[in-house]
Amino acid sequence: MSNDRTLQPAAQAGRPRLGALALLLGAWLAISVPQAHAQATPWPKAQPIRLIAVFPPGGSVDQVARILQPALQRQLGQTVVVENRGGASGSIGAAAVAASPPDGYTFAVVFDSHASLPALIPGLPYDTKRDLPPVALLGTSAMVIAAHPDSPYRTFGDAVAAARTARGVSYGSIGSGSLGHLALALLAKGSSLNLVHVPYKGGGPLMNDALAGHVPTSIGSIFLLKPHIDSKRLRPLAVTTSQRSAALPDVPTIAESGFAGFDAPAWWAVLAPARTPPEVVRQMNEAINAVLRQAEVSQRLAGQGIEIFTGSPEAARAFVEAQVDVWGKVIRDNGIKAD
Length: 339
Known about the structure:
By secondary structure, the chain is an alpha/beta fold. It folds into two domains: 49-140 and 265-334, Bordetella uptake gene, domain 1 (D-Maltodextrin-Binding Protein, domain 2); 143-257, 3-Layer(aba) Sandwich (D-Maltodextrin-Binding Protein, domain 2). The protein has helices at residues 18-39, 60-76, 91-98, 113-120, 128-131, 156-163, 179-191, 203-212, 222-230, 278-292, 295-302, 313-334; strands spanning 49-53, 80-84, 106-111, 134-141, 143-147, 169-173, 195-199, 217-221, 235-239, 266-271, 307-308. The strands form two sheets. The chain has a six-stranded mixed sheet, with helices on both faces. It has a five-stranded mixed sheet with strand order 7-6-8-5-9.
């Protein structure tokens, strides 16, 4: 069929021909579509933005969310509230966000356990990669391996030497499937070290036994261990990131202690429900990055051993999905089960 409008007869006398009608329609759309877009409610509008911290109050996820909240509220010019929805290693809060309307008013604040949940908890009510795309990676931190001052391990090398014996070395973590557990399971399997895991029900019980010397070594976040390292009640042996931590610059990395390439960072991120409009994701990412660059925020995060990351949603997604793949394999290879 010809597209030449001059070959199309008028449908009825007195009415414009199809070509003229198309021109009128095009002109109307050119005016009305931008107007409709301009009249659409901008983001954020006058309603609170919720940051769902997927762990109870007091932990690092809660602390990070509450450091962000006032600065983000000022940056966006809109109310931002933090809600704690803990339970099931963060999966309860994550599921609530995944099921929320994708309108840009509900976000999850998660940390590294998010990456291990798909392999640890069969039948999650959401798909980690599909249903909770990252908006921003907030930062990373080293995990710290520490010993009680009365233990025979003065250096990480001492602990490694002991781990090559039949007796091995016992270490405590905040629980089965925690990043500390997974990091040392990865190290043990790749190096034939005899590292005996002692799981605890969270950071409080772990620190009670670590400080009392009931477990000779422990692994946890800088947020958890550094106060006790500063008070000399624990001796740091190594950190798990590929580079030394600015919070513990004198503590060597596992990588530089004979295990080249080893890298197991703790991390925190903001996620959104799937199908949140890309322009909203981009605006939220830009607002978070602006907040992270503020001295007050970056210094408070640095005080918890967190080194900020300011990057795109795409960079955050690549990082988080790589973490899901890495730790999923470690869990499957070692037959690790959740508590």
